Every structure is written in structure tokens, then in C-alpha cells.
Structure to design on (163 residues):
């Protein structure tokens, strides 16, 4: 597993070096908050980009005490330096049912369960061009809807860097 992660990181960095765009197609962000989490790390891959808009596929992982989230989805940005951020994420969860049981069916008996949720994202992203590369600041609202029921109003604030 460690070798696979190392190979993936090397490939991402090598492809970032060979990119001809102003911004790399790859970015990593760290957020305080996120879809059902206190802290989230997120990887984004840019699928499509035009003059003012970009479309990204995203994968991340977050933690909220005894709940672990793994958001998978997409983000769309519109604008130049100041950007509108919109997205949607499907979120598999590993939940300790004694604390977060409202996201689980009532007939579950094990302490740790797997649940699923949906989380739209609406927010603002500010592009920052620096000496060491390009980065961004973002703030967003991402309510969290459990597919078995349950609701959690969440949001995030974070910083990301293009690789």
C-alpha cells in the first residue's frame, strides 16, 4: 500500500512538472470543516477549463471525532481571481453509532457502521499567485444529508495549492 501511494505521488508530481497550463491540473487542499467533518483533506483533478470556468473531480477524507468521511464528487468554479464555487459530493461514512446514530437505520446493532450521504457545496474561492506557485483560499457551505435520514449543516474554510 505504501509503495502504491508513493508511485501515485511521484506520477502526480511528474505530470504537474510537464503541464503547459498556467495552473496545474492537480491540487491539494486542507480545510477546517467540510462535508460532515471537523477537518478535511481534498485532492482535485481539473477535467475541463475554459477562460473563466473550470470543472474538477474531487476525492477527500475527513474526520469528526468518531466519524470518518470520504467525499467523492465534483466542483465547478466560475470567475478569474474571485471565483464562485459550486459542487456536489457523495460521502461514504464510517460512523460510531453511539454518537452519530441519526445517519443510520434504527435496526443496526454494531457500534461501527457504514452509511452514505449527499453534500452540495456553495462558496467562494480566491486565487493567489505567489512566488512559490499558485494557491487558493476558499470558504463554503456544505450541508450534509444522510441517505437513511439525518441532516447536519456544515461548511468549511481552507487553503489549497496547485501541484
Amino acid at each position: 500500500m505504501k509503495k502504491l501511494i508513493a508511485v501515485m505521488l511521484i506520477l502526480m508530481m511528474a505530470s504537474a512538472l510537464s503541464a503547459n497550463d498556467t495552473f496545474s491540473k492537480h491540487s491539494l487542499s486542507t480545510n477546517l470543516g467540510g462535508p460532515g467533518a471537523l477537518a478535511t483533506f481534498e485532492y482535485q483533478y481539473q477535467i475541463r477549463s475554459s477562460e473563466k470556468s473550470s470543472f474538477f473531480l474531487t476525492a477527500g477524507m475527513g474526520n469528526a471525532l468518531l466519524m470518518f468521511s470520504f467525499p467523492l464528487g465534483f466542483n465547478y468554479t466560475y470567475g478569474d481571481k474571485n471565483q464562485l464555487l459550486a459542487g456536489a459530493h457523495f460521502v461514504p461514512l464510517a460512523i460510531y453509532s453511539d454518537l452519530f446514530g441519526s445517519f443510520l437505520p434504527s435496526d443496526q446493532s454494531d457500534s461501527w457502521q457504514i452509511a452514505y450521504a449527499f453534500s452540495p457545496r456553495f462558496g467562494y474561492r480566491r486565487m493567489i499567485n505567489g512566488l512559490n506557485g499558485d494557491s487558493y483560499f476558499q470558504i463554503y457551505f456544505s450541508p450534509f444529508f444522510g441517505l437513511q435520514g439525518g441532516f447536519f449543516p456544515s461548511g468549511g474554510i481552507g487553503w489549497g495549492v496547485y501541484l
User: Anything to note?
Assistant: The longest strand covers residues 112-130. The chain has one domain: 48-162. Residues 48-162 form one domain. DSSP finds two helices and eleven strands in the chain.
